[in-house]
């Protein structure tokens, strides 16, 4: 079985007497260590898919297998453990704590996971060794995003989930962030999933999942993905 497998997954949201189907019998597979891009317009179901993968919401129907385990059968306590031990999140707007330094923001993961990586080493990995004692307000947008990536990988997660990680960045900085995330997949073996509106990012992906109206419109495997620096932005 693949590392990730969605099997006829449905997600409903109830709004009073109305029932909205955010995901409609979604099925796909992802192999371990792949760099995956999920594309689609607003309302396509991308964020819902990310929330289900990250154990932040429950599927209404279907099965979601992560590393051979069906997380749709998990209790709330088991889902909490899954999020804590297996998932790293990278958000568009960083979600850093303003009153903590870069080092302290990353160090928070050590309270969640006993075998977390060294915060200083992960900040060095993302090129911030000289900024570890700075507060978020003293960092550029790209540097804050790198702190959020360091915080995510400090957990040494099975799966790195990135929600529009370059959406708030200029092209040059966004390219650097993509290069970093891509390297985590290719060089360090992390399975990385990036949700984005930017179709150009698909050129560097191992697998591209296109969504429309809560359904999978198309899944393609890229036999010859480009390097980040080869993409014309």
Name the features:
233 residues, alpha/beta, Rossmann fold, 6-stranded mixed β-sheet, 4-stranded antiparallel β-sheet, 6 helices, 10 strands
Q: Overview of this structure, please?
A:
With 233 residues, this protein is an alpha/beta fold. The chain has one domain: 3-Layer(aba) Sandwich (Rossmann fold), CATH 3.40.50.300. It has 6 helices and 10 strands. Helix 3 packs parallel to helix 5, helix 4 packs across helix 5 and helix 5 runs parallel beside helix 6. The relative contact order is 0.19.
Task: Quickly describe the structure.
This protein is of the alpha/beta class and 233 residues long. The chain has helices at 46-53, 76-86, 102-112, 119-125, 141-154, 171-186, and strands at residues 4-15, 18-30, 35-39, 61-66, 69-70, 87-90, 159-163, 191-196, 207-212, 215-221. The chain has one domain (32-59, 75-230): 3-Layer(aba) Sandwich (Rossmann fold).
Task: Note the topology.
Elements: E1 4-15, E2 18-30, E3 35-39, H1 46-53, E4 61-66, E5 69-70, H2 76-86, E6 87-90, H3 102-112, H4 119-125, H5 141-154, E7 159-163, H6 171-186, E8 191-196, E9 207-212, E10 215-221
């Amino acid at each position: 079985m693949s590392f990730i497998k969605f099997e006829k997954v449905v997600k409903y949201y109830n709004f009073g007497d109305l029932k909205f189907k955010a995901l409609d019998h979604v099925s796909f597979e992802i192999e371990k260590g792949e760099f995956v891009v999920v594309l689609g317009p607003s309302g396509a179901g991308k964020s819902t898919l990310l929330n289900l993968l990250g154990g932040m919401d429950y599927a209404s129907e279907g099965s979601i297998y992560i590393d051979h385990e069906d997380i749709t059968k998990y209790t709330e306590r088991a889902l909490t453990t899954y999020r804590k031990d297996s998932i790293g999140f990278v958000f568009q707007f960083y979600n850093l704590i303003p009153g903590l330094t870069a080092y302290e923001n990353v160090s928070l993961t050590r309270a969640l996971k006993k075998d977390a990586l060294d915060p200083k080493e992960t900040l060095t990995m993302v090129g911030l060794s000289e900024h570890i004692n700075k507060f978020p307000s003293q960092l550029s947008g790209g540097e804050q995003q790198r702190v959020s990536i360091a915080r995510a990988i400090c957990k040494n997660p099975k799966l790195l989930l990135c929600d529009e990680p370059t959406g708030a960045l200029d092209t040059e900085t966004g390219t650097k962030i993509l290069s970093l995330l891509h390297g985590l997949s290719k060089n360090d073996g992390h399975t990385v999933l990036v949700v984005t509106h930017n179709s150009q990012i698909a050129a560097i992906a191992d697998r591209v999942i296109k969504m429309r109206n809560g359904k999978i419109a198309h899944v393609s495997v890229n036999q010859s993905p480009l390097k980040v620096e080869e993409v014309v932005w």
